[in-house]
């Protein structure tokens, strides 16, 4: 099987309109992100742990780019770099040609841990960021927040506190809180991890519907292969650290998607291919960590 190890594997300008799996009626919005030879290590020089190693990648506008990789390979590190919370040691990350130098409201991040403020209602949580920045008139902001909360199915729960919401509802509140900023890029780091199986698949369907309506640039990190295939336009499979891109799989399942597509022969082949790579990486990692063990 051919691999795209450490290569800039996709022309960012590919966009959406010409590809067969795109919903023709929804034009791509959002930004292009380019990572060029990005390296990142943690720790002092004498005991440094190389996490990302000359990683290059293009993230196309309006597409759902899903990243999978072995646990600890640096997926969250990559998310932190894209969000601008961390800087690469070398290499460059640009968004629409501008180098990322820090966090910005053009990129919203949703993590697996809930970041909702526990003593604020769902509604207050959603308006909190824009209110603090003062970049929207209060009346407009409140109207927009209500609209978004209805859209994510929380119309009846606006005045509830986060702890009064189910896990799935909390994730939907987080989505509303990110979307109120109208980001060009949504970055999701295992956002549905920890939900029970039923809530998780409902969230995936719900999230996909939101994406297919808006077609923002999305970067979605997951360790769940079915979730990855169900959501992705492009599936980026990473190696163990020092981490590179092992393979980019173009997921050609049609949109709008539904769960039955995961039982197709095509989906099965994507799954087999992804699992084979991840299994090989896990075996390598096991071989390394078991060295010296009697
Ligand atoms: N702030 C940090 N300081 C030191 N080491 C870190 C830091 N953040 C992550 N790491 C290390 O980097 C590696 C990759 O972590 P992470 O990006 O969280 O992986 P993943 O999200 O793929 O599971 C791990 O070995 C982790 O211990
Ligand atoms: Mg992580």
From TrEMBL:
Residues 33-265 form the ABC transporter domain. SMART domains: AAA. InterPro entries: AAA+_ATPase, ABC_transporter-like_ATP-bd, ABC_transporter-like_CS, ABC_transporter_ATP-bind, P-loop_NTPase. Keywords: ATP-binding, Nucleotide-binding, Transport. GO terms for molecular function: ATP binding; ATP hydrolysis activity. PANTHER family: ALIPHATIC SULFONATES IMPORT ATP-BINDING PROTEIN SSUB, TAURINE IMPORT ATP-BINDING PROTEIN-RELATED. Belongs to the ABC transporter superfamily. This is ABC-type nitrate/sulfonate/bicarbonate transport system ATPase component-like protein. It comes from Puniceispirillum marinum (strain IMCC1322).
